[in-house]
């Protein structure tokens, strides 16, 4: 199966491109890790497969409308 054909089938079936699907999954994982609060943004960007922290922060803000730091402050899960 060619890459172009795969992209076409994937987009038809899921309504988004494979690239956007992967970004969405990475952002969801990053949101989980940010809410836990234990890891730095740099480490989270690496764990989620982003090439660097700057790229992660830029995509996160595009996707969520706020920076990873702002998201962490608003969604931190406090453990007792």
Could you describe the 3D structure shown?
The N and C termini lie far apart (52 Å). It contains five helices and no strands. With 80 residues, it is mainly alpha-helical. It has helices at residues 3-14, 18-36, 41-47, 53-64, 68-75.
Annotation keywords:
80 residues, mainly alpha, 5 helices, elongated
Gist?
With 80 residues, this protein is mainly alpha-helical.
Write down the overall mean pLDDT: 91
User: What overall form do the CA principal axes indicate?
Assistant: elongated
* Multimer state: single chain
What is the C-alpha radius of gyration, as a whole number of Å? 15 Å
Strand content: under 5%
| Class computed from helices, strands and strand pairing | mainly alpha
- Describe the main β-sheet briefly: none
- The amount of helix comes to over 70%
Instruction: Report the order of strands and helices.
Output: HHHHH
Report the strand count. Answer: 0
Unreliable residue runs: none
């Amino acid at each position: 199966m060619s890459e172009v054909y795969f992209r076409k089938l994937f987009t038809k079936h899921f309504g988004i491109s494979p690239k956007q699907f992967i970004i969405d999954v990475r952002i969801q994982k990053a949101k989980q890790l940010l809410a836990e609060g234990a890891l730095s943004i740099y480490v989270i960007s690496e764990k989620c497969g982003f090439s660097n922290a700057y790229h992660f922060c830029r995509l996160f803000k595009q996707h969520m409308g706020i920076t990873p730091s702002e998201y962490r402050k608003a969604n931190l899960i406090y453990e007792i």
